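re the bet — no i am not wrong, look at it urself. input seq straight from the record:
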Amino acid sequence: MAEDNIYQINKKIIYKSKLDEKICLQAVDLINKIQSNFTDKSWDCPIRTSLNTTYNILNIIGLFDLKMHILSKVNLFMYENNNICDGYLSDSWVNIYEKNFFQEYHTHISNVDKFICGVVYLTDNNSQIHFNLGPEISPKFGDILIFNDDDMHRVLPNEKDDLRISLAFNYKKCREWKGIKIEK
Protein backbone atom coordinates (compact mmCIF):
# COMPACT_ATOMS: atom_id res chain seq x y z
CA MET A 1 0.00 0.00 0.00
CA ALA A 2 1.27 3.46 -0.85
CA GLU A 3 2.37 5.73 1.95
CA ASP A 4 -0.13 8.43 2.82
CA ASN A 5 1.13 11.96 3.40
CA ILE A 6 -0.38 14.53 5.70
CA TYR A 7 0.37 18.22 5.20
CA GLN A 8 -0.58 20.52 8.07
CA ILE A 9 -1.49 24.17 7.39
CA ASN A 10 -2.60 26.32 10.32
CA LYS A 11 -4.15 23.28 12.08
CA LYS A 12 -5.76 22.11 8.82
CA ILE A 13 -4.88 18.89 7.06
CA ILE A 14 -4.28 18.19 3.38
CA TYR A 15 -4.26 14.44 2.85
CA LYS A 16 -2.37 12.86 -0.05
CA SER A 17 -2.57 9.21 -1.01
CA LYS A 18 -2.37 6.91 -4.01
CA LEU A 19 -5.34 5.21 -5.67
CA ASP A 20 -5.26 1.80 -7.33
CA GLU A 21 -3.56 2.16 -10.73
CA LYS A 22 -5.88 -0.29 -12.49
CA ILE A 23 -8.98 1.61 -11.30
CA CYS A 24 -7.46 4.91 -12.46
CA LEU A 25 -6.60 3.48 -15.88
CA GLN A 26 -10.21 2.27 -16.28
CA ALA A 27 -11.40 5.79 -15.46
CA VAL A 28 -9.03 7.30 -18.03
CA ASP A 29 -10.33 4.92 -20.71
CA LEU A 30 -13.92 5.97 -20.02
CA ILE A 31 -13.08 9.69 -19.85
CA ASN A 32 -11.23 9.48 -23.17
CA LYS A 33 -14.40 8.06 -24.75
CA ILE A 34 -16.69 10.81 -23.45
CA GLN A 35 -14.48 13.91 -23.24
CA SER A 36 -15.80 15.31 -26.52
CA ASN A 37 -18.95 16.17 -24.48
CA PHE A 38 -16.98 18.44 -22.16
CA THR A 39 -17.17 22.16 -22.86
CA ASP A 40 -15.54 25.35 -21.69
CA LYS A 41 -16.68 26.57 -18.28
CA SER A 42 -17.37 30.20 -17.56
CA TRP A 43 -14.79 30.48 -14.79
CA ASP A 44 -12.00 33.04 -14.83
CA CYS A 45 -9.67 30.53 -16.46
CA PRO A 46 -9.57 28.42 -19.62
CA ILE A 47 -10.65 24.85 -18.89
CA ARG A 48 -12.82 22.08 -20.36
CA THR A 49 -15.06 20.33 -17.85
CA SER A 50 -17.79 17.74 -17.52
CA LEU A 51 -19.84 20.12 -15.33
CA ASN A 52 -21.85 21.29 -18.33
CA THR A 53 -22.87 17.66 -18.91
CA THR A 54 -23.43 16.36 -15.37
CA TYR A 55 -22.90 17.57 -11.83
CA ASN A 56 -21.81 14.14 -10.62
CA ILE A 57 -19.74 12.23 -13.14
CA LEU A 58 -18.92 9.57 -10.53
CA ASN A 59 -22.50 8.33 -10.90
CA ILE A 60 -21.57 6.83 -14.28
CA ILE A 61 -21.48 3.06 -13.74
CA GLY A 62 -18.05 2.78 -15.40
CA LEU A 63 -16.61 4.97 -12.62
CA PHE A 64 -18.16 3.01 -9.73
CA ASP A 65 -14.87 1.42 -8.62
CA LEU A 66 -13.18 4.82 -8.60
CA LYS A 67 -16.06 6.28 -6.59
CA MET A 68 -15.75 3.55 -3.94
CA HIS A 69 -11.99 4.00 -3.74
CA ILE A 70 -12.41 7.78 -3.31
CA LEU A 71 -14.94 7.23 -0.51
CA SER A 72 -12.48 5.00 1.35
CA LYS A 73 -9.87 7.79 1.19
CA VAL A 74 -12.41 10.40 2.35
CA ASN A 75 -13.03 8.20 5.40
CA LEU A 76 -9.29 8.10 6.12
CA PHE A 77 -9.16 11.90 5.82
CA MET A 78 -11.98 12.22 8.38
CA TYR A 79 -10.16 9.78 10.66
CA GLU A 80 -6.93 11.83 10.42
CA ASN A 81 -8.94 14.98 11.27
CA ASN A 82 -10.75 13.15 14.09
CA ASN A 83 -13.92 14.59 12.58
CA ILE A 84 -16.17 11.79 11.36
CA CYS A 85 -19.44 12.64 9.63
CA ASP A 86 -22.11 11.00 7.56
CA GLY A 87 -22.40 12.27 4.01
CA TYR A 88 -22.11 11.48 0.34
CA LEU A 89 -20.33 12.51 -2.86
CA SER A 90 -22.62 15.31 -3.99
CA ASP A 91 -20.60 16.72 -6.89
CA SER A 92 -17.85 15.34 -9.08
CA TRP A 93 -16.44 16.55 -12.36
CA VAL A 94 -13.56 16.05 -14.75
CA ASN A 95 -11.34 18.96 -15.71
CA ILE A 96 -9.24 18.84 -18.87
CA TYR A 97 -6.38 21.27 -19.21
CA GLU A 98 -4.96 21.88 -22.65
CA LYS A 99 -1.70 23.76 -23.09
CA ASN A 100 -1.74 27.04 -21.07
CA PHE A 101 -5.02 26.10 -19.33
CA PHE A 102 -5.02 26.63 -15.55
CA GLN A 103 -7.26 27.00 -12.51
CA GLU A 104 -7.37 30.29 -10.61
CA TYR A 105 -7.37 30.53 -6.79
CA HIS A 106 -10.70 29.29 -5.47
CA THR A 107 -12.44 27.45 -2.65
CA HIS A 108 -15.42 25.11 -2.62
CA ILE A 109 -17.31 27.03 0.06
CA SER A 110 -21.11 26.95 -0.16
CA ASN A 111 -23.60 29.25 1.53
CA VAL A 112 -25.57 26.18 2.62
CA ASP A 113 -23.37 23.08 2.87
CA LYS A 114 -19.98 22.04 4.24
CA PHE A 115 -17.77 19.83 2.08
CA ILE A 116 -14.69 17.70 2.13
CA CYS A 117 -13.08 18.27 -1.26
CA GLY A 118 -10.58 16.42 -3.34
CA VAL A 119 -8.93 15.87 -6.65
CA VAL A 120 -7.73 12.71 -8.39
CA TYR A 121 -4.94 13.00 -10.96
CA LEU A 122 -5.47 10.89 -14.08
CA THR A 123 -2.38 11.86 -16.08
CA ASP A 124 1.33 12.10 -15.34
CA ASN A 125 1.38 15.58 -16.85
CA ASN A 126 0.36 17.59 -13.79
CA SER A 127 1.28 21.11 -12.79
CA GLN A 128 1.77 21.87 -9.14
CA ILE A 129 -1.28 22.62 -7.03
CA HIS A 130 -0.74 25.59 -4.72
CA PHE A 131 -2.57 25.98 -1.44
CA ASN A 132 -2.78 29.51 -0.06
CA LEU A 133 -0.58 29.64 3.05
CA GLY A 134 0.49 26.09 2.42
CA PRO A 135 2.48 23.63 0.41
CA GLU A 136 2.98 23.32 -3.31
CA ILE A 137 2.29 19.71 -4.21
CA SER A 138 3.48 18.01 -7.41
CA PRO A 139 0.96 15.20 -8.00
CA LYS A 140 1.54 12.08 -10.07
CA PHE A 141 -0.84 9.71 -11.86
CA GLY A 142 -3.22 8.08 -9.38
CA ASP A 143 -2.60 10.57 -6.58
CA ILE A 144 -5.56 11.86 -4.59
CA LEU A 145 -5.52 15.04 -2.52
CA ILE A 146 -8.26 15.66 0.05
CA PHE A 147 -8.85 18.91 1.92
CA ASN A 148 -11.52 21.10 3.51
CA ASP A 149 -13.83 23.27 1.41
CA ASP A 150 -12.33 26.53 2.71
CA ASP A 151 -8.76 25.69 1.66
CA MET A 152 -7.92 28.18 -1.09
CA HIS A 153 -6.01 26.53 -3.94
CA ARG A 154 -5.04 26.95 -7.59
CA VAL A 155 -3.35 24.99 -10.37
CA LEU A 156 -0.55 26.43 -12.45
CA PRO A 157 -0.85 26.51 -16.27
CA ASN A 158 -0.25 23.34 -18.24
CA GLU A 159 3.03 24.05 -20.01
CA LYS A 160 3.01 20.88 -22.12
CA ASP A 161 1.17 19.89 -25.29
CA ASP A 162 -0.22 16.76 -23.59
CA LEU A 163 -3.62 17.05 -21.94
CA ARG A 164 -3.80 17.16 -18.15
CA ILE A 165 -6.85 15.36 -16.73
CA SER A 166 -8.12 15.47 -13.16
CA LEU A 167 -11.34 14.55 -11.40
CA ALA A 168 -12.52 16.84 -8.60
CA PHE A 169 -15.23 16.11 -6.03
CA ASN A 170 -17.17 17.45 -3.07
CA TYR A 171 -18.25 15.14 -0.26
CA LYS A 172 -21.25 16.76 1.44
CA LYS A 173 -21.11 16.62 5.25
CA CYS A 174 -24.61 15.81 6.46
CA ARG A 175 -24.21 14.97 10.14
CA GLU A 176 -21.15 15.01 12.39
CA TRP A 177 -20.62 12.25 14.89
CA LYS A 178 -20.89 13.91 18.29
CA GLY A 179 -18.97 12.71 21.31
CA ILE A 180 -17.04 9.95 19.55
CA LYS A 181 -13.30 10.45 19.40
CA ILE A 182 -11.28 7.73 17.73
CA GLU A 183 -7.80 7.00 19.03
CA LYS A 184 -5.19 6.70 16.30
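see?? The chain has a mean pLDDT of 90. told u. also Residues 64-81 form the longest helix (18 residues). so pay up
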